[in-house]
């Protein structure tokens, strides 16, 4: 299943982007921008901090901005009809600032569609389930060196896209900018501050109770983690900014 396409089309059902202005937060090399061009958006703007921003998709209706979601200085307030972000917020250091910025740049009558997953404290918060599938919550239970030893001892084959076991563990532990390491509670707290929006969804999707094995729960409780946070996989936030009173008659 193409989750990127699924979420882009779902967002379009909430706010039809044809002829509208769309902001894609966490656009990376440009892939997510293609969906909104295909859906007929008048303008698509992509924001990301990566050096390769937009390199894989150039289009006259697409503009890229290399800056943080927490401080989108080049973007004017109340400009975008849809603010869209998928599998990005778990990488943004300050989710409070980022959500506030989304509200700021959103036009009256516009919508925010934000899906953050997997959250850091969840089973696969390290983003590498293909390598640690039989060692749940590996990133919370193993040190960097222990994770490296785990991969090497089991002769786990690393995909070419991930280069090597060392690159994988460095991504998980050393390169601090890759993950915000935030509790699921922070997402809920951040969105609760957005007072100028009509909330359609503000959910933490969790694994069922009992999903954390008792021995692992004891191990992680000793480190200060809580069951509800360990089971929280996805934060879904969908909201609209009410139209100004005169727009209701347009």
Automatic annotation (TrEMBL):
User: PANTHER family under this entry?
Assistant: TRANS-ACONITATE 2-METHYLTRANSFERASE (PTHR43861:SF1), TRANS-ACONITATE 2-METHYLTRANSFERASE-RELATED (PTHR43861)
Entry keyword set: Methyltransferase, Transferase
Record flagged with keyword tRNA processing = no
Please provide, alphabetically and separated by semicolons, the GO molecular function terms listed in this UniProt record: S-adenosylmethionine-dependent methyltransferase activity
| Chain ranges of the Methyltransferase type domain | 24-113
Name of the protein described by the UniProt record: SAM-dependent methyltransferase
Question: Would you say which domain of life the source belongs to?
Answer: Bacteria
Pfam families xrefs: Methyltransf_11
One of this protein's GO BP terms? methylation
């Amino acid at each position: 299943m193409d989750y990127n396409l699924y979420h882009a089309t779902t967002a379009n059902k909430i706010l039809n982007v044809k002829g509208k202005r769309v902001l894609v937060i966490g656009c990376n090399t440009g892939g997510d921008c293609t969906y909104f061009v295909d859906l007929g958006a008048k303008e698509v703007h992509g924001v990301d901090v990566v050096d390769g921003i937009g390199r894989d998709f150039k289009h006259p209706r697409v503009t890229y901005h290399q800056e943080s979601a927490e401080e989108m200085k080049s973007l004017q307030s109340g400009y975008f009809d849809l603010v869209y972000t998928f599998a990005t917020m778990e990488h943004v250091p300050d989710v409070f600032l980022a959500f506030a910025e989304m509200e700021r740049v959103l036009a009256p009558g516009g919508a925010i569609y934000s899906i953050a997953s997997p959250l850091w404290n969840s089973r696969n918060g390290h983003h590498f389930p293909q390598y640690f599938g039989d060692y749940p919550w590996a990133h919370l239970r193993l040190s960097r060196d222990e994770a490296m030893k785990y991969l090497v001892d089991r002769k786990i084959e690393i995909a070419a896209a991930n280069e090597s076991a060392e690159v994988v563990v460095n991504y998980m532990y050393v390169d601090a900018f890759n993950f915000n390491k935030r509790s699921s509670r922070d997402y809920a707290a951040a969105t609760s501050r957005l007072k100028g929006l009509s909330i359609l969804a503000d959910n933490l999707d969790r694994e069922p109770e009992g999903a954390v094995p008792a021995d692992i729960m004891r191990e992680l409780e000793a480190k200060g983690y809580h069951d509800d946070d360990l089971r929280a996989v996805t934060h879904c936030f969908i909201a609209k900014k009410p139209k100004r009173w005169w727009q209701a008659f347009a």
